[in-house]
Amino acid sequence: MEEGLPRRLRSRLGRWFLRNARDLPWRGERRDPWAVLVSEVMLQQTRVEVVAPRFEAFLARWPTPAAMAASPVDEVVAAWSGLGYYGRARRLHAAARAIVERHGGVFPAEEASLRALPGVGAYTAGAVGSLALGLPLPLVDGNVARVLARLFAVRGDPRRGEAARRIRDLAAELLPPAGAGAWNEGLMELGALVCVPGRPRCLLCPLSADCAGRAAGLEERLPETPPPRRGRAVRMAAALVRDGKGRTLLLRRPDGGLLGGTYELPSAEVGEGGDPVASLCDALHGRLGGRWEVGALRARVRHSILERRIALEAYEVRSSGRLRRPEDSLFAAPEDLVDLPLSSLVTKVLRHTEPDPGWRRNR
Ligand code: SF4
Q1: How far is the CA of 238 from the centre of ligand 1 (A)?
Q2: Quick one: which atom of ligand 1 is closest to the CA of 205?
Q3: Is residue 256 within 8 Å of 262, Cβ to Cβ?
Q4: Catalytic residue among 3, 40, 162, 173
Q5: pLDDT tens digits for 157-211?
Q6: Which ligand 1 atom is at minimum distance from the Cα of 204?
Q7: Is residue 185 flagged as an active site residue?
Q8: Average pLDDT over residues 203-231
Q9: CA 177 to centroid of ligand 1, rounded, Å
Q10: Residue 296: which of 345, 344, 239 has the closest Cα?
Q11: Which residues contact 169 (CB under 8 A, 6 or more apart)?
Q12: Domain ranges in the chain?
């Protein structure tokens, strides 16, 4: 790397960041490591526009690791409702407990202890360490990888192999001796606002004069990330089982697996060419016993999750015969839903099928 390049990039990016940084709720004057951890965990796989309105309420409820550690994990998972990827809520709760148990509630201010916290990998340790604790740690997220791949014309998939190593090395090499947090945040912001996926806005870029990707005409072809695989199409049928008060039966998914600890409607996967009504009756009989009649179709919902493209139909159902209610189940009225951990798929269905009061506050 040319000798004066890191300093030039830092100075140009620093000036640009001061003028262009978005005013986001987690960017205060004083950076609190707990607030940074919460925001970074929320922002993994969830867009800024979705996280921003939820972040402050979350932090007001759990302003410190000790406050969260004192709450049952299910409360944290319930408050996570709508953000998706519920394992993150469980890991955040586990990290809060570890901070209290191992460090007396005070954030550890060195990398190895940060990385030993549940759910904290290199990226999150870099974010918390550099933004809030003044540690000279690089970080590479999707935005940073894209900016560096273009700036230094790095060929290959930046998430794997030689290209990933080169990006990590560049992030470390470019880190300033002081002010690593501002540099890291500037790179992330440039990736979010200017060096965006697809067609970057090079005319607005403070680093364009030094951009090797642009000089080579590769700015729209880099990074060379393979296109995502198209998800598998899955058909599902779900049951709206009501009790005498009109409340809806929800079953709790086992902890640990996909969407662990969230509540779902009793449902069945419908095989190719299969009949949703017959599949649903079979599944209900197997899970709850009794005999079932399927009534009106109340909702059709489409949802993508983890390489699955789900098309789900939700039906009113009625039972006769003796029912076995699973232990981890409950009947929920619309106003109860706000306090329950629900996956985005279930939330979509309930928006179509339940009366309004209360649960919309969850969005
Ligand atoms: S010049 Fe264009 S491609 Fe290069 S870093 Fe700036 S926005 Fe990205």
Answers
A1: 47
A2: 6
A3: no
A4: 40
A5: 999 999 999 999 999 999 998 899 999 999 999 999 999 999 999 999 999 999 9
A6: 7
A7: no
A8: 94
A9: 24
A10: 239
A11: none
A12: 5-215, 233-362
* 194 Cβ inside 6 Å of ligand 1: yes
Mean pLDDT over 273-294 rounds to 92
Cβ neighbours of residue 112 under 8 Å, at least 6 residues apart? none
Stated as kind and residue range, the H or E segment containing 232 is strand 232-240
Average pLDDT (236-263) is 88
Helices 122-132 & 33-43, crossing angle to 10 degrees? 140
144 close to ligand 1 (CB < 6 Angstrom): no
Confirm whether 5-215 and 233-362 share one CATH topology. Answer: no
> What is the per-residue pLDDT for 357?
40
In the predicted model, what is the mean pLDDT of residues 282-287?
92
One CATH from 1.10.340.30, 2.30.130.10, 3.60.60.10, 3.90.1310.10 for 5-215: 1.10.340.30
Give CA–CA dist 7/5, Å, rounded: 5
Full-model pTM: 0.73
With the most atoms of ligand 1 within 8 angstroms of its CB, the residue from 20, 146, 150 to mutate is: 150
Whether 5 and 210 have beta carbons less than 8 Å apart is answered as: yes
pLDDT of residue 336: 84
Q: Which of 20, 151, 220 should be mutated for ligand 1, with most atoms under 8 A from CB?
A: 151
93 lines ligand 1 (CB under 6 A): no
Contacts of residue 123, Cβ cutoff 8 Å, sequence gap at least 6: 40, 139, 140, 141
For residues 96 and 62, the answer to whether their CB atoms sit within 8 Å is: yes
Residues 6+ apart with CB under 8 A from 124: 37, 40, 41, 114
Q: Would strands 248-252 and 232-240 be described as parallel, antiparallel, or unpaired? A: unpaired
CA nearest ligand 1 atom 3, residue: 219
Q: Is the CB of 36 under 6 A from ligand 1?
A: no
Is residue 48 within 8 Å of residue 39, measured between CB atoms? Answer: no
What is the C-alpha separation between 189 and 160, in angstroms, rounded? 23
Burial annotation 226-243 (CB, 10 A radius, 16+ → b, else e): eeeeeeeebbbbbbbbee
Residue predicted with more confidence, 336 or 157: 157
> The domain at 233-362 falls in which architecture?
Alpha-Beta Complex (3.90)
